[in-house]
Recover the amino acids of this structure.
C-alpha cells in the first residue's frame, strides 16, 4: 500500500506508474491513485502521462533488476483495455491492477 507524501516547500513529487513498477521488478512502486481535497493549503498538480506503445510487452528488465522476475510478461494493450473497460462499463469486478500479472511466490 502506498504512503502519503507530506508536501514540503521547494520540492517536486514524481509519481511512477505501473509500467515502471514492472520494468524495475518492484524496485520502484507505482503510486496508489487517490485524490484528496486540499482544504488548508494550496497545491499545484500537473499530470503528465507517458505510456508504452499499445503493442509493447511489459516485463522486468534484466539489466535493471536483480533476482527472479516478480511479474509475467503482458501486453500494455491488454492491461490498459482492462482498466478502461471497467472504468466506463463497470463490469462488476474490482479494477484490474498490476498485481494481476504478479508471479506467485
Amino acid at each position: 500500500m502506498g504512503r502519503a507524501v507530506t508536501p514540503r516547500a521547494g520540492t517536486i513529487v514524481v509519481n511512477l506508474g505501473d509500467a515502471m513498477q514492472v520494468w524495475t521488478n518492484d524496485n520502484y512502486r507505482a503510486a496508489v491513485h487517490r485524490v484528496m481535497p486540499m482544504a488548508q493549503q494550496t497545491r499545484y498538480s500537473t499530470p503528465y502521462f507517458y505510456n508504452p506503445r499499445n503493442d509493447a510487452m511489459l516485463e522486468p528488465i534484466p539489466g535493471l533488476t536483480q533476482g527472479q522476475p516478480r511479474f509475467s510478461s503482458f501486453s500494455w494493450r491488454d492491461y490498459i483495455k482492462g482498466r478502461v473497460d471497467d472504468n466506463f462499463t463497470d463490469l462488476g469486478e474490482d479494477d484490474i491492477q498490476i498485481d494481476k500479472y504478479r508471479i506467485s511466490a
